[in-house]
Design goal:
three-stranded antiparallel β-sheet, globular, 2 domains, seven-stranded mixed β-sheet
Length: 389
Amino acid sequence: MTEELRPERRPNSPLFSSGPCAKRPGWSPEVLNGAFLGRSHRAAEGKAKLKAVIDEHRALLGIPDDYRIGIVPGSDTGAVEMALWSLLGARPSTILAWESFGSGWATDVVKQLKLDDAEVVTAEYGQLPDLNAVDWKRDIVFTWNGTTSGVRVPNGDWIAEDREGLSICDATSAVFAMEMPWEKLDVVTWSWQKVLGSEAAHGMLVLSPRAVERLENYTPSWPLPKVFRMTKGGKLIEGIFKGETINTPSMLAVEDVLDALNWAKSIGGAQGMIDRTNKNAKVIADSVKASDWLDYLAEDEALRSPSSVCLKITDHWFTGLSVGDQAKAAKQLVSILAQEGAALDIGAYRDAPAGLRIWAGATVEADDLSALMPWLDWGYGELKKNFKN
C-alpha cells in the first residue's frame, strides 16, 4: 500500500460504536422534555406511553396482530434469557453459534440450564453453520445477525414452515436493519440501543401464538426468577404485553425510544431504516473493494451484515505478526483514529479476531462513513510506521 496523505475532512460525527449506537441525526436532550417523571409508571399516563412503544413497534415492523410484544428488563440479553429459561426443555434443542453472543446462549443452555438433550452447532468467525442441516423437530436458538462477527443469516428460507420446534431468534442489530420474516419466527428479541440508537437496559420480546401455547402448557423443572415469569396459573400474563412491565422501567428511556420510533416513521418506517443501513453498508463495501489491506471477516458476500460491519486486516505485514501482536496493532490503529477524532469505538469485539468493527445502522450518516474510510487508510499507514510491540 502506498503512503496515504492525511485526509482533510473528518466525519461530522465520529460515533461508530456497535452498542450503544449513535443517536438519530438531530437528536438532543430536549427530546426528553415530555418524559413522564416523578410518577408511577403504572399510572394511566405511564402505561399509555409504554403501550405506545409496543404499538409503534408493531406498526412500523409489520408484526402480526396475533403476536405478543413485550418490554422486558435487561436489554436484549434479558429478553433472550427470559425465552431460554421459560421455553426450553419441552423438547430437544439446538443452539447455533458462530460468534460470541450465540456462544453465550450455548453456555447458558448447556452449563446453566444443563439440558441433556441440547446440542451446540458451531462455525468459526466469518462463517455460518450448515443451516440446511437444522432439524426442526427441535427448538432452534440462533442469532439473526452476528454483531461480533458481521455474519448474518441470509433470509428465513431455511426455517421450516411446518416446524415442530420453536425458532428462537436473537435479532438485535437486525430488527430495523434487515427484513424479518415474522411468520417464520416464534420468539424474537432485540434492544432499543442498537438500530434505533436509543437507550440501553430495556429489551423487546415478541412471541408467536406457538410460543404462547408452549408457555401455557409447559412448566420448566427449574425455578424461575420473578423477572422471567410470563405466566400465572398456566395462563400468559397479558399485562406484560400491554405495557404493564414486570419491573420499573426508565421513563426517560421510554421517552427517548418514542422519539427514535417517531424519527423512524418520518424516514419511511422500517423500510426507510433498512434503506439507510444498506446505503451505509455500500459506502464501506466500495472502499473495502478498492483496499489492498482490508477485507470482510464474513467470507460469503450474501452473509455480510450491513449493520455491524466486521473487517479483517489482510496485509502481509499484519498477518506476519504473532496473534498477540496483531491484537496490539489493531488496538493501536483504533487509538490512532480516536486521537484524530475520526472514529470512536471501532475495534473488533474482544472475543473476535483482531480487526475493525464499524456500525453502519440507520442512525449513522452515509456522508460520515464516506469521510471515515480515507482515515482508515491513513491510520494504517501511520500504524505500520510507528507500531510498537
